[in-house]
Amino acid sequence: MPETRKESWQFGFMMCFGMVLVMTLYNLYINDMLSTITFTEGTFNFLTAFVIAFMLDMFVVSPYAKKTAGKAVGHTGNKVYMILAVSTCMVIGMAFFMSIYGLITAYMHTGFQSGSILLDYLNVFGKNFVMALPLQIVVMGPLVRYLFTNFIKTNAEAKEV
């Protein structure tokens, strides 16, 4: 999809924005905080999570996810396999790191949930992964690829002509 560094940043920005927005609302919902958090707190929470997620996406997770997916799919040439492999690797990596962020923020607000940090982390990771994988593959991935292809790529190609 993205062919240049600028396009990679644009694509990553769009994907991160959508995923973080939905996952923030999801986490507020499952923690029964939608009715207790103010709009300002929610916006601050979203923006903080977005900045962290975007930096993780661009500099940590994406390079490794693409390498891992490339090795897993090999040289089949099938674009769908590559998209699914990259999406799955991205979700695993982002859920891993963003669950750490979620656990830290949860501890700051409510304290420890169980006697074990590992159990709390696995609980958060599991809930995030179960939501993020279908969200990425079924909703956000196709939506962002469509928007990117029809608006960002089209505008870039029009400027070149």
Describe the structure.
The protein has one domain. The chain contains 4 helices and no strands. By secondary structure, the protein is mainly α. Helix 1 packs across helix 2. Pfam families: DUF2798.
Write the layout of secondary structure elements.
Elements: H1 5-30, H2 39-73, H3 79-110, H4 117-160
Helix pairs in contact: 1-2, 1-4, 2-3, 3-4
Give a quick account of the main beta sheet: strands, pairing sense, barrel closure: none
Our Rg estimate from Cα atoms comes to 17 Å
The total domain count is 1
* Count of extended strands: 0
Average pLDDT rating = 91
Specify the helix fraction band: over 70%
Q: Count of helical segments? A: 4
The parts where pLDDT drops under 50 for at least 5 residues are: none
Q: Outline, from the CA principal axes?
A: globular
Beta strand %:
under 5%
Which class do the helix and strand fractions yield? mainly alpha
Run of helices and strands:
HHHH
Compute the separation of the termini in Å.
20 Å
